[in-house]
Amino acid sequence: MVGTLYIVATPIGNLEDITLRALRVLREVDLIAAEDTRQTRKLLVHYGIATRLTSYYDQVEAARASLLVKQLKSGKHIALVSDAGTPTLSDPGFRLVQEAIRAAVPVIPVPGPSALTAVLSVSGLPTDRFVFEGFLPTKKRERRERLQRLREEDRTLVFYEAPHRLKETLDDLLELLGDRQVVLGREVTKVYEEHIRGRISEVIAEIGRKEPRGEITLLISGSAGEQIPLEDLIRAEIEELLQKGLRVKEIAEVLGERFSYPKRDVYRLVLEKERETS
User: Fold this and answer.
1) pLDDT tens figures, 157-182
2) What is the dihedral of CA 146, 152, 158, 161, to 10 degrees?
3) CA 89 to chain centre
4) Among 89, 155, 205, 216, which is least packed, fewest CB within 10 Å?
5) Are residue 106 and residue 190 in the same domain, yes or no?
6) In whole angstroms, what is the distance from residue 150 CA to residue 11 CA?
C-alpha cells in the first residue's frame, strides 16, 4: 500500500493557531518535510512532537520531490509544512504535489492558518471575489508590467510583499492603478500585529513615518471603472527611461511594444517630454 502526503497548515505567528487534527497528523506521520527545519522544530518542541524532519525548500525541491515520492510509494506517510501558514501558497510544495498525484499517491489537505484568508477576513474590502497574486516581481520593470495587466481587474487584489520593497510597490500601485483603498496587514497573529487601512497615498504617508517590519499582506480594492489615461502611464515610463539614458527611438520601440501603442505616437510623447525638461 502507498502512503499519504498530508499538506499541513501551521501557525503564521501565534503557536496556538493550529488544529487538533494537524497536531495528530504531525505526530503520526513517518516524516515531516519542512521548508525550514529550525522553524518547524520550534513548533514540534512546543507540542512535544518527536517526528523526524527533513528539509524541503526551493533550492532542493527538484531533487527532493522525487525522493519523497519514492518513500510515499513504499508506504511511508509524509507531512509537508512551510515556515508558516498553508504550504504551496507562495511556498515550496507544488512540484511535490504534482509528482505525488502522478504517482497515484493520496494527497490530503489539513487546513488551517493562512495570512491570505486572515487579512481578507478583516479587511473590509469585498471578499466574495478576489485575485491572489502572491509576491510581485522584484525587478521594477517586471513589477510594473504585472500591475499594468491588473489595471482593469475589478476583484480585490491580494499580494504578499517584503517590508524593504513595500514603499516602492505602493508608489507603483498609486501611479498605475490610482489612489484606491488599500489594507496592509503586518505581523498577523503576532505580538506587534497591525492593520493599516486607507487610500494608497495615505498608507504611503503612514509608513513614511514608521517603517514597517515583518511579513506583509497587501490588499487593494478592484477597479471601479476608473482608469488612468494610457498616455499618462506612457509618459511616466518615458520619464524613467529618459533618466536611464535611452534614446528617443529606443524608447518608442520599447514602449510601443509594451503598451501595444503606435510607435510614432510614443515618439511624439518622448519629444514632448524632452521639450518640457529642456
Assistant:
1) 999 999 999 999 999 999 889 899 99
2) 30
3) 8
4) 205
5) no
6) 31
Residue 225 lies in a domain: no
Same-domain status, 53 and 96: yes
pLDDT, tens digit (0-9, with 9 covering 90-100), for 33-86: 999 999 999 999 999 999 999 999 989 998 899 999 999 999 999 999 999 999
- Residue pair 115/185 in contact (Cβ under 8 Å)? The answer is yes
pLDDT in tens, 198-219: 999 999 999 988 878 888 999 9
The residue to which cell 481578507 is assigned: 120
Name the burial class of residue 146, with classes exposed (0-12), middle (13-18) and buried (19+) by CB atoms within 10 angstroms of its CB: middle
Same domain for 156 and 120? yes
Is residue 43 a contact partner of residue 16, using CB atoms and an 8 Å limit? no
The pLDDT score that the predictor gives to residue 261 is 77
Q: Are residues 104 and 203 in the same domain?
A: no
Residues 109 and 10 placed together within one structural domain of the fold: yes
Q: Tell me which residue of 171, 155, 144 sits closest to 223, measured CA to CA.
A: 155
On the CB side of 16, CA atoms within 13 Å amount to 3
